[in-house]
């Protein structure tokens, strides 16, 4: 759905921290650190809400020591929601650019949550670096509705 002129009206309606953990026993100060990034999208059809969930996992030797996940929920204006529905109304297609935009907002939100949670701990140096979400989100996001919706 490459609609370059598609302007989608929405508002941020919820921020939810899904997961936060510090696993000190899995951390060694002198070890190299890797960070895993996970992204997922969801919906609430009844309320015209799209959600972007991102998870960041800081690891050493494939063992996580710091994990954070949060969801930002965006309520779509009715016309915008209808623009995203397929012709049969069986699925919603989130354009790649808008999916990236929701993810960018969510990453920024998670940075703030993480800062507040670790600012007075040994893990205060771990921040979420700049992320090229275009490498993670390379196509439109298609969400099929279940038969019960």
| SS element count, helices | 3
Cα-based radius of gyration, to the nearest Å: 17 Å
Q: Give the CA-based shape.
A: elongated
Percent in strands: 35-45%
Distance between the termini: 23 Å
Count of beta strands:
6
List segments where confidence is low: pLDDT < 50 over at least 5 consecutive residues. Answer: 1-5
**CATH topology term:** Bacterial Protein-export protein SecB
* CATH architecture heading: Roll
Secondary structural class: alpha+beta
Describe the main β-sheet briefly.
4 strands, antiparallel
What does the average pLDDT come to? 92
Strand order of the largest sheet: 1-4-3-2
Order of helices and strands: EEEEHEHHE
Layout of helices and strands, plus pairs?
Layout (H helix, E strand, L loop, with lengths): L9 E13 L11 E11 L4 E12 L2 E14 L1 H7 L6 E4 L1 H23 L14 H4 L4 E4 L5
Antiparallel strand pairs: 1-4, 2-3, 3-4, 5-6
């Amino acid at each position: 759905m490459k609609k370059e002129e598609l302007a989608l009206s929405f508002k941020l309606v919820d921020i939810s921290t899904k997961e936060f953990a510090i696993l000190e026993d899995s951390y060694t100060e002198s070890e190299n650190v890797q960070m895993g990034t996970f992204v997922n999208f969801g919906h609430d059809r009844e309320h015209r809400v799209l959600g972007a969930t991102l998870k960041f996992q800081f690891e050493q030797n494939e063992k996580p020591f710091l994990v954070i996940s949060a969801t930002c929920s965006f309520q779509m204006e009715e016309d915008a929601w209808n623009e995203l529905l397929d012709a049969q109304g069986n699925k919603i297609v989130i354009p790649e650019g808008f999916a990236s935009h929701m993810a960018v907002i969510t990453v920024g939100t998670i940075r703030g949550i993480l800062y507040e949670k670790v600012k007075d701990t040994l893990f205060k140096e771990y921040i979420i670096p700049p992320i090229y979400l275009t490498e993670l989100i390379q196509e439109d996001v298609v969400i099929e509705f279940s038969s019960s919706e």
